[in-house]
Amino acid sequence: MEFLMNEYTITVLPEDQVAEALSLMKRCFETNLHSIFFLHPETTLVALFEGRIVAGLNLDVYKVNKTVTMAYIGWLYTDSNHRGKALAGQLLDVAMRFCKDLGCTDIAGCVEGDNPASFKQLERRGFKRLGLLGQALRFRQGMFRVYHHASRFFDMGYFFWHKCLDGSKVKESVINTKALLFGMIANTLLFLPILFEINIPSLVFNIPTKSGHWLLLLLLPSATLLSRTMALYLVALKHKVPVEYHLWDTAFLTALILPLLTGICFPVPGNIYIKGSDWSLENHKALLSKMALASVVATGSLLMLVQSLDLYPYPLVLLLMDTLFFFYPFCGFNASRINRGSKKIKVTAFSVLLVCLLYLLLY
Questions:
Q1: 211 Cβ neighbours under 8 A, 6+ residues apart
Q2: pLDDT value at position 203?
Q3: Closest to 162 in 3D by CA, of 170, 154, 174, 150
């Protein structure tokens, strides 16, 4: 299989150029991602320029269930000297035809919510965000196989962009108010193992949960998500930037397992994202960092209120994640936005965290 495009040739990766493709991947992606690279030569497409690899798209093709065969887009990369030549889009176009010829019914890829440079290529070609319900209905018993191949069990803020190659219809993920309500209900249910002390530390070591006000405790997850989300939304509204709320349904597994094993809650807040794909992270990182700082202040304020009422410090984990955890697989949290912001934003966010921690220790 070979496609010609101006000065470039798109073809299946030649066996003798595997090392060259891996070398290009290492140049294109951060060092902390190198450990999760995969490359199957027979399902990897590359763009050649004068015989050298200048772009690539790594596919993982596998059977999900009796009716679904998946082509998962793991890595899409272009040499810095050849960007702006529409190679990514051309590779995707060729990949869809290539996957159809292989008998694939579905094609998908995971992209972080603040990365429009990547997901706009998918959006333009009819890919849609597929939520947890849509995944369950489409993949059924094979859903965990999809999660395994996509390393999705612990992704925070990465969305599953999906397209049916066989013309089937799927249920897209919900957004905005419906998604937020669903998130509030889900986080409340995921808090129950701590609330009712159904977790290993409580059962084995008899570690009690602060439980003086059961109704207030039950409202904590919703209050935390709502205050954080509204802070993000109000900053975007002030700057007249259209945004939308998306839930992180892929993190529910972590939010279920962690409380059961450790007795520590793990909020799954979702996030407010700039609407559409016609924007760039470079031009909007200042706004996103201001939104993130507002969410940190809101969460920190709620944490101090919760502590003054002698309740379980539910917002604490979220505050820590939103200020310190900016690396993969947690880069969907607001810490990554703060990390891309100005020095003033970073210092202010860490100061809020420090004040809250001191308040917890001294109160």
A1: 195, 217, 312
A2: 80
A3: 170
Here the tokens at position 260 are 């059961």
pTM: 0.89
First CA to last CA distance, the chain: 68
> What is the spatial distance between Cα 291 and Cα 277, in angstroms, rounded to a whole number?
18
**pLDDT for 144 beyond 90:** no
Residue spans of the domains in the chain: they are 2-164, 176-362
Q: Is 278 helix (H, G, I), strand (E, B) or coil?
A: coil
> Which tens digit of pLDDT belongs to each residue from 265-307?
899 999 999 999 999 999 999 999 999 999 999 999 999 999 8
Rounded Cα–Cα distance for residues 98 and 62 (Å): 14
Assigned token pair, 136: 């369950």
Of 3.30.830.10, 3.40.50.970, 3.40.140.10, 3.40.630.30, the CATH number of 2-164 is 3.40.630.30
Q: Following DSSP, what letter does each residue of 318-351 receive, concatenated? A: HHHHHHH--STTSTTSTHHHHHTS-HHHHHHHHH
Distance CA(235)–CA(291), nearest Å, equals 6
d(CA 236, CA 239): 5
Per-residue 3-state assignment (H helix, E strand, C coil) for 193-256: HHHCCCCHHHHHHCCCCCCCCHHHHHHHHHHHHHHHHHHHHHHHHHCCCCEEEECCHHHHHHHH
176: left (phi over 0), alpha (psi -120 to 50) or beta: left
Q: Which of 106, 74, 99 is nearest to 170 (CA)?
A: 106
DSSP 83: T
Q: Which DSSP letter does residue 124 get?
A: T
